[in-house]
Automatic annotation (TrEMBL):
Source taxon at top rank: Bacteria
Pfam family of the protein (one): HATPase_c
InterPro entries in UniProt: HATPase_C_sf, HATPase_dom, Sensor_HK_TwoCompSys, Sig_transdc_His_kin_sub3_dim/P
Root EC class: transferase
Enzyme Commission number, as recorded: 2.7.13.3
Species: Micromonospora noduli
Reaction(s) catalysed (UniProt annotation): ATP + protein L-histidine = ADP + protein N-phospho-L-histidine
Annotated Gene Ontology cellular component terms: membrane
This protein's name: histidine kinase
Domain Histidine kinase/HSP90-like ATPase: 311-405
Keyword flag Ribonucleoprotein: no
Transmembrane segments: 76-92, 99-116, 122-139, 171-189
Length: 408
């Protein structure tokens, strides 16, 4: 992998969430808000079918039949009932495949009035189609919502043309669909905000546990060091005291291991243990595909990156990862994050920048975390790490590390 990167003068990795098939990268020509809408991914994991869905089907199916019997004013009653019953199962997949269900239901009901004697949507019970609009904006991607909206608008417009409804009824139809879409968006972002709050609470708790872990290790190691010194001092004259010191050291070590394992289990809760090797420079490209929401990430690797010591490669990856995470967390209205790594004969330069609002303040983090931890990581290898706002746009982090590191 390293040799492949070294042979290529530049590597560009572009992520555009669900628009990978569009085969174009964001070049600034698209409006940032439109880009953000199109790049919005589907809500994952979406709920599959639950008992409430089957209960809804069980209630609606006989209601459709009853309405078909007691609505003599409906043209082609049997056909309308059959079409609406055939579309009823779309409710079962409205969360997992919202666009497909909207296209199926609204596509059929748009064409039906032109090829059949009656409009199936004249059934009052056909109003369940509004649930498909809600589900599209609640669970679908931004691209799904845009495409599905065309089918919804086409259906309402076609109903106005075929049935010759007045302007008020047409506006009411659009208002109902808009209300369903708005409700879906509101609940979607409320759930996302709630999830972000939970993630922040987990992060703060893990940071607290990390500090506690450090204090625990420091306490037990200090106790073991003191007992070891006492054992050495008394080993010649009091062998029994030296043996007792060894037993004390063993007990302290066991307690330290038990406490550390308990904290590590909490830190890893809901996440599998990472048993793989430390990531290196070649893994920075994976940052582009690591996130499903937020700004697009571009990665550019240049120069001879082969033969870097593992400590330097791992540090570069961690610095890039932390910088991208900070940009995603704090950059306001950012649509793009650029990560570049350039190597020469003596050093390696990492630069991470975003196109968020200029002059925005970013938190520096508590000692040992965030930007302070990044600077300490660079200092340990004899390098530098600087971060600050750009005059024109966003925020930039620049780290320069010696190619061989300190003491390599």
């Amino acid at each position: 992998m390293i040799e492949t990167i070294a042979q290529r003068p530049a590597t560009r990795v572009v992520l555009w969430d669900d628009l990978k098939s569009h085969h174009r990268s964001y070049d600034g020509s698209m409006h940032p808000r439109l880009h953000a809408v199109l790049a919005e991914p589907r809500v994952s994991p979406a709920l599959s079918r639950v008992w409430r869905d089957w209960a809804l089907i069980a209630v609606l199916a006989p209601a459709i039949l009853v309405e078909g019997v007691f609505r003599p004013d409906l043209p082609w009653r049997v056909g309308c009932v059959v079409v609406v019953l055939a579309l009823l199962p779309t409710l079962l997949w409205r969360r997992t495949a919202p666009l497909a269900m909207v296209v199926t239901a609204f596509g059929c009901t748009t064409v039906a009035p032109f090829v059949l004697p009656g409009d199936p949507c004249q059934l009052f019970t056909a109003s369940f189609l509004v649930l498909l609009v809600y589900a599209l904006f609640r669970w679908g991607s931004g691209r799904d919502a845009v495409l599905g909206s065309f089918f919804v608008v086409a259906k309402v417009t076609a109903a106005g043309l075929v049935d010759s409804v007045d302007g008020g009824e047409l506006v009411a139809g659009f208002a109902v669909m808009f209300a369903a879409a708005t409700l879906g968006v509101a609940i979607r972002f409320r759930a996302a905000a709630r999830q972000r709050e939970l993630d922040q609470v987990k992060l703060l708790e893990r940071e607290r546990l990390a500090r506690d872990l450090h204090d625990t290790v420091a306490h037990h190691v200090s106790a073991m060091a003191i007992r070891a010194q006492a054992g050495i001092a008394t080993s010649a004259s009091q062998p029994d005291a030296a043996v007792e010191a060894l037993h004390t050291i063993e007990a302290e070590a066991s307690r330290a291991l038990a406490e550390m394992r308990a904290m590590v289990r909490v830190l890893r809760r809901n996440e599998p243990a990472d048993l793989g090797p430390n990531p290196q420079v070649a893994d920075i490209g994976r940052l582009a595909g690591q996130f499903r929401t937020g700004p697009t990430v571009d990665v550019d690797l240049r120069g001879d990156l082969g033969g870097l010591p593992p400590t330097v490669g791992s540090a570069l990856y961690r610095l890039a990862q932390e910088s991208v995470t900070n940009a995603r967390r704090h950059a306001r209205h950012a649509t793009r994050i650029e990560v570049s790594v350039a190597a020469d004969d003596t050093s390696v330069c990492l630069r991470v920048s975003d196109d968020g609002e200029a002059g925005g303040a970013r938190p520096t983090g508590s000692p040992g975390f965030g930007l302070v931890g990044m600077k300490e990581r660079a200092d340990l290898l004899g390098g530098t790490c600087e971060a600050g706002p750009d005059p024109d746009r966003g925020w930039t982090v620049t780290a320069v590390l010696p190619r061989e590191g300190v003491g390599a």
